[in-house]
Amino acid sequence: MKEISVFDVIGPNMIGPSSSHTAGALRIALMASKMCQGPIKKVEFILYGSFARTYQGHGTDRALLGGMMGFDTEDRRIRDSFRLAEEAGIEYKFTLNTTDQDVHPNTVEIIAEDVNGHVTDVVGESIGGGNARLRRIDGVYVDIAGELETVVVRQQDIPGVIAHITQVLYEHRINIAYLNAYRENKHEHAYSVIEADGDIPDALIEQLRKIPAVEQVNLIRL
Amino acid sequence: MNFSKGKELLTLCESEQIRISEAMIRREVQYFEGTREEILARMAHSWKIMKESVEEGQQEGNRSMGGLIGGEGHKVSARRDKGNSLVGPVISKAMAYAMGVLEVNASMGLIVAAPTAGSSGVIPGVFCALQEEFGFSDEQMIEALFTTGAIGYLITRNATVAGAEGGCQAEIGAAAAMAAGAAVELFGGSPAQVLSAASSVLGTMLGLVCDPIGGLVEAPCQKRNAVGASNALVCAEMTLAGVDNLIPFDEMVDVMYKVGRSLPYELRETALGGIAASPTACQLCSLSGECTRL
Description:
The complex is a heterodimer of chains A (222) and B (294).
Chain A: H1 6-9, E1 13-15, H2 19-35, E2 40-48, H3 49-54, H4 60-68, H5 81-87, E3 91-97, E4 107-114, E5 119-128, E6 131-137, E7 140-144, E8 149-156, H6 161-171, E9 175-183, E10 189-197, H7 202-209, E11 214-220
Parallel strand pairs in A: 2-3
Antiparallel strand pairs in A: 2-4, 4-5, 5-6, 6-7, 8-10, 8-11, 9-10
Chain B: H1 6-16, H2 20-31, H3 36-57, H4 72-81, H5 89-106, E1 110-112, H6 122-134, H7 138-158, H8 163-166, H9 168-186, H10 191-204, H11 221-240, H12 249-262, H13 279-287
Helix pairs in contact in B: 2-7, 3-5, 3-6, 3-7, 4-5, 5-6, 5-11, 6-9, 6-11, 7-9, 9-10, 9-11, 10-11, 10-12
């Protein structure tokens, strides 16, 4: 059983009103923003379940947009995120999906386009108490909580890539807490998700990007 | 150094001759990252946010996202400031501050979920009222927050603090139990008395359902925060006067959990029953554009 810290009880410190509908939603968007390749130009949020029904009264929309702009859960600017997004020239749209019932009740799909036209599509779930998980990246099922520093590597699904990745982590003396591999189809794209103890240095990320079969590397640090 | 039941916590306090706040600080140092100084500094940050949320909540112009609440905390304080308080300054402040913090929460302001966002008014309300009326230092209040943390941890570990699981008795009930225990410690009560006060609170809020209008953390949540804050003070007063609770804390936590689990689904944060299902509530949420029954 995971031990409960005093700050799990007296906390999180958060912009209200709801840990699941506001803080958790923001956390999904913050993780999504870290998965993008550059500054965001355009973003669409597709809301499911309870998110679709009560998003306005819970400020879920403002929290999601704030998360895409990199605000953390304590950031008082979240309340003004519509205005701030407009000032930053970010186009945004909220779409409601109240027909699909086969999803976690607090689910959002985020489709973000960066200034270079690169599109990132992630699905996340807010699972209570301000915690959240990413469940899909560009169509591939994953499970990312973002509690530890997390490196997300998109790679070709061929032998030896994970060995190469873990070798780089070893060279930087980074201890791996959890390592998971995900893929959709054999020999296409795969994701390696590495949750690590301690801070991941930028040099490590750069080194991972140089591995031939690696297509993309993102660092989720919340 | 760890403990998972109230009884173990009391044994630990007895053998080490320490207060509950100190036991919780030592547990945190042992099981989580950070030195004692870092952990105290982190709690000082939480206390600062709590105080700011109380201050912000006393302003007149707060308006909630769902439009159901705003300005109520200010009204209660305005009446007290004219010297008209019926319940006296401590309870009047505690309830008004608790209500104001809920307004801050509902208008997308910054709060500390303690233990949840829906119950975030209780502890800051009680703590700020006690500090203003009795002159406790910030250091004392920060230590006392670890006492609230110990009680909240035991309830989380052995039952729940989620309204969706245990109803409002689990959210406001837990927050008030935490605040009552801390108040008793601040006034020199023993560790056993701290848990006795917490047990009294849980016993007196037993069965309270979670039925938010439109599914929003606004009404009746705000008034229940006010009542939770005053309940905490009433139970602390009883305990400090030597009125013990017949049922030990650990048993009361189990009782609260069982009652919570036996509440029907409609009365556990779904907004399908209780006040949320009253004709007027339905009318209100159709006006504000929020309806969980779509």
